[in-house]
């Protein structure tokens, strides 16, 4: 697993302004995290929250 991923998705012409803003926020969260996870909460088919939990790893040196 692992590897490099292209995080710039093709932009369909049908995205609304709100969808573009949400997509930009998700992309920003992905680009600024090194270890951890991003959770997207959806209610009634709409993104209502983006949580980013970043883990900090320390070596035992």
Q: Report the oligomer.
A: single chain
In DSSP terms (H or I, runs of 4 or more residues), the helix count works out at: 1
Q: Gap between N and C termini, in Å?
A: 27 Å
Order of helices and strands: HEE
Could you give the order of strands across the largest sheet? 1-2
Number of beta strands: 2
Features:
2 strands, flat, 61 residues, two-stranded antiparallel ribbon, 25% helix, alpha+beta
Write the layout of secondary structure elements.
Layout: H1 17-31, E1 36-43, E2 46-54
Antiparallel strand pairs: 1-2
Walk me through the structure:
The chain has a domain at 17-54. It is built from 1 helix and 2 strands. The mean pLDDT is 86. It has a two-stranded antiparallel ribbon. It is flat and about 50 Å long. The protein is 25% helix and 28% strand. It has one helix at 17-31; strands at 36-43, 46-54. It has 61 residues and is an alpha+beta fold.
Summed up:
It is built from 1 helix and 2 strands.
């Amino acid at each position: 697993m692992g590897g490099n991923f292209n995080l710039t998705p093709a932009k369909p012409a049908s995205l609304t302004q709100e969808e573009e803003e949400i997509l930009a926020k998700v992309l920003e969260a992905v680009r600024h995290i090194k270890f951890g996870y991003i959770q997207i909460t959806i209610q009634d088919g709409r993104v209502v929250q983006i949580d980013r939990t970043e883990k900090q790893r320390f070596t035992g040196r």
